Amino acid sequence: MNSKRTMLGRLAGLLRRPYSVPQLQGVLSEANELVRLAQKSGQTDRCGEGQRRYHIDAESAMEVQWQTLILPLLQGMDFSVVVDLAAGYGRNTVKLLEHAGEVIVVDINRECIEYCQRRFANDKQVKYLHTDGASLKGIADSTVTLMYSFDAMVHFDSDVVRAYLLEFVRVLRPGGRCFCHHSNFVERPGGTIEGLPHSRNFMSAELFAHYSLKAGLSVRQQRILDWGGYSKLDCISILEKPLA
Ligand SMILES: C[S@@+](CC[C@H](N)C(=O)[O-])C[C@H]1O[C@@H](n2cnc3c(N)ncnc32)[C@H](O)[C@@H]1O
């Protein structure tokens, strides 16, 4: 404990900011808690055999979803620098690359990043970020034109969603947009995903809009979706970082 306090004291000194040791302890424990919550969806999605099967099945459904659901909602967006958040094996990345100047593949699982590195080995437009699960550390402020996430945020804990929304505001250029596919399932509060329809975490269109607005993003459109036999289980929110 003493050595931890000394380490935090040094950190406070290094930061040259008026943080007290207890304040820093609070910041660090909040960060640890976020990483723990992020690992819940991260662990479930670890690219084992079940996940490999998901990615093969999901890839074959992609073309129809892209043409009928996704692409119409992406009309008019700037594809210069796109982030594919929680990219998995890159089935969305392939489609985004048809339009994008650059795609940054982000995922919590190193196996997914490595899979995409092999898949897009010859594509210099693709960059990679292995995230801690709640941040976009490594992507510079105001550099991204489109934040994109499909079939992944639906599983994220609401605290993780909020943390990412703050990161979206940071990395987006003014006028940049977000395409976020998230949960609209509010029947089981508490942040668990085990045993829930398609492992949807607690979230609603309204709560997502609330968090987005508080983060500083405007909500341009929300489309409620049926998913896998469940009515109104999901939502796609289109957000924008204001110009000024
Ligand atoms: C169901 S897969 C979907 C992958 C991809 N978006 C697709 O549509 O094929 C969910 C992905 O989210 C990633 N993931 C889970 N929690 C995450 C988090 N907190 N931050 C970033 N990636 C996460 C997993 O590693 C996995 O690749």
What does this protein structure show overall?
This protein is α/β, with parallel strands linked by helices. It has one domain (2-240): Vaccinia Virus protein VP39 (Rossmann fold, 3-Layer(aba) Sandwich), CATH 3.40.50.150. It has 7 helices and 7 strands. The protein has a 7-stranded mixed β-sheet with strand order 3-2-1-4-5-7-6. The protein is globular, with a radius of gyration of 19 Å. The mean pLDDT is 91. Bound molecules: S-adenosylmethionine (SAM). S-adenosylmethionine is lined by residues 38, 41-42, 45, 58, 86-88, 91-92, 107-109, 112, 131, 133, 150-152, 156, 160.
Order of helices and strands: HHHEHEHEEHEHEE
Order of the strands making up the biggest sheet:
3-2-1-4-5-7-6
What small molecules does the structure contain?
Answer: S-adenosylmethionine
Beta-strand percentage? 15-25%
By CATH reckoning, the class would read Alpha Beta
Q: Please tell me the overall pLDDT.
A: 91
CATH architecture: 3-Layer(aba) Sandwich
Q: Look up the CATH topology.
A: Rossmann fold
Shape by Cα distribution:
globular
Number of separate helices:
7
User: Main β-sheet, in a few words?
Assistant: 7 strands, mixed
Structural class: alpha/beta
How many domains is the backbone divided into? 1
